[in-house]
């Protein structure tokens, strides 16, 4: 099986296991609902950061494509870490708005850079 698929399946299985364990811990009274939510969403942020870290490591034949994967990787890795950090330490409302804003900003930076590279390629 492909290494990328194995990593993706590991993340999926890990987040599902974490969600089930958090649900069980909440039902047993060890943690409250907010903590269960924070655990799962924090892990989701770490997953986004992991994927962003993996992006620049993929082989792409074009120099422009390598530039895009590098910028996209950095923006998604950083936005994923901000998302996870907010869910770990910020108040719930701040984590929700700020975390979603961080992910949206990371995507916007990636898309904006893709468009700028495309425009530069058309000009040449």
Question: What does this entry look like structurally?
Answer:
The protein is mainly α. 85% of the residues lie in helices and 0% in strands. The model has no long low-confidence stretch (mean pLDDT 91).
Number of helices: 4
Radius of gyration of CA atoms, rounded to a whole number:
17 Å
Q: What class, by secondary structure content?
A: mainly alpha
Low-confidence stretches: none
Largest sheet: none
- Mean of residue pLDDT? 91
Order of helices and strands: HHHH
Number of strand elements = 0
Principal-axes geometry comes out as elongated
Helix content: over 70%
Measured between the Cα atoms of the first and last residue, the distance is 41 Å
Strand content: under 5%
Which tags fit this structure?
single chain; 124 residues; mainly alpha; 4 helices
List the helices and strands and how they pair.
Elements: H1 3-27, H2 33-54, H3 63-89, H4 92-123
Brief synopsis:
The chain is mainly alpha-helical and 124 residues long. It has helices at residues 3-27, 33-54, 63-89, 92-123.
């Amino acid at each position: 099986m492909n290494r990328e698929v194995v990593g993706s399946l590991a993340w999926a299985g890990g987040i599902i296991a974490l969600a089930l364990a958090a649900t069980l811990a909440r039902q047993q009274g060890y943690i409250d609902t907010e903590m269960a939510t924070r655990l799962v969403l924090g892990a989701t942020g770490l997953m986004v950061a992991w994927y962003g870290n993996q992006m620049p490591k993929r082989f792409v034949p074009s120099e422009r494509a390598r530039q895009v994967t590098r910028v996209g990787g950095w923006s998604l890795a950083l936005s994923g870490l901000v998302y996870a950090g907010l869910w770990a330490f910020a108040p719930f409302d701040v984590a929700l708005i700020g975390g979603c804003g961080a992910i949206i900003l990371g995507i916007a930076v990636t898309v904006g850079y893709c468009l700028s590279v495309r425009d530069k390629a058309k000009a040449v």
